[in-house]
From TrEMBL:
The name this protein goes by in its record: Peptidase C51 domain-containing protein
UniProtKB keywords: Signal
Signal peptide span: 1-32
Domain Peptidase C51: 130-215
InterPro entries registered for this protein in UniProt: CHAP_dom, Papain-like_cys_pep_sf
Record flagged with keyword Signal: yes
Source species taxonomy: Bacteria, Bacillati, Actinomycetota, Actinomycetes, Streptosporangiales
Organism superkingdom: Bacteria
rRNA-binding as UniProt keyword: no
Any Pfam family: CHAP
């Protein structure tokens, strides 16, 4: 593949558990059923004990059994990848303050039910998110605004977000529009090396993808072009045709 280069990297990594004050083990489990969402429960981050396998995504195969996220999507609004990407694009130019926080993505995550779950998992407190790296908060916020957060997932830690996609059989190698893309700037293929996350806008057909990302450049939401060798894998929300 040639010598790797670090190009256009964001100025800081994903939100790690060290930032929040402690390190904990992540346990496995199954995604919540649709009825649980209606009752106010929240989708668990189901990290496997072993390395996440690289799966071939077959979500469009009509003969394949429905995945847990496809079942959940039956109770959600019908949203296309283009509609979600439009929400993401509208945020281009939003930037953090001089402390590395202060965005609406931070405020939303800190006020969401999810923050209590990630604090229970990782330790720390709500205020610890105020100036934390926010690439995954951006992805989660966009999913919420588009109305399909239960199949986009929500977290502030990129590794467990990637593991959640894999555990729910929505993880693979294809840069589909609207896919959630996870990066390792060193070009590794382990989810534990993930540095950053964003959305795929399109595959450029030349070894690169166009993306929309938060917490990139100098702490902005921007459209970027990334080489595919930096991609660990893709998570696939459920979109309407």
């Amino acid at each position: 593949m040639g010598k790797h280069r670090r190009v256009s990297t964001p100025k800081k990594r994903h939100l790690t558990r060290v930032i929040l004050g402690m390190s904990v083990a992540v346990t496995g489990g199954a995604v919540a059923a649709p009825s649980a969402f209606a009752a106010g429960a929240h989708d668990p981050l189901n990290a496997p004990a072993a390395e996440v396998p690289r799966l071939a995504w077959a979500g469009s195969a009509s003969s394949a059994p429905k995945t847990p996220l496809q079942v959940i999507a039956e109770g959600l609004p019908k949203v296309s990848a283009a509609q979600l990407l439009a929400v993401a694009e509208q945020q281009i130019g939003v930037r953090e303050n001089s402390s590395g926080g202060g965005t609406k993505f931070h405020s939303w995550y800190m006020g969401s039910p999810r923050v209590k779950e990630t604090i229970a998992r990782d330790g720390g407190n709500v205020q610890g998110y105020a100036n934390a790296p926010w690439c995954d908060m951006f992805v989660s916020w966009v999913g919420e605004q588009a109305g399909i957060r239960p199949t986009v997932g929500w977290d502030a830690y990129t590794v467990t977000h990637a593991q959640w996609f894999a555990n729910n059989r929505h993880w693979g190698d294809t840069p589909e529009p609207g896919a959630v893309v996870f990066f390792d700037w060193k070009g590794g293929d382990s989810v534990y090396g993930i540095d950053h996350v964003g959305f795929v806008k399109h595959d450029n057909g030349d070894g690169t993808i166009t993306t929309i990302e938060g917490n990139t450049g100098n702490g902005n939401v921007e459209q970027r072009v990334r080489p595919k060798w930096q991609v660990v894998g893709y998570g696939y929300p459920v979109y309407s045709a």
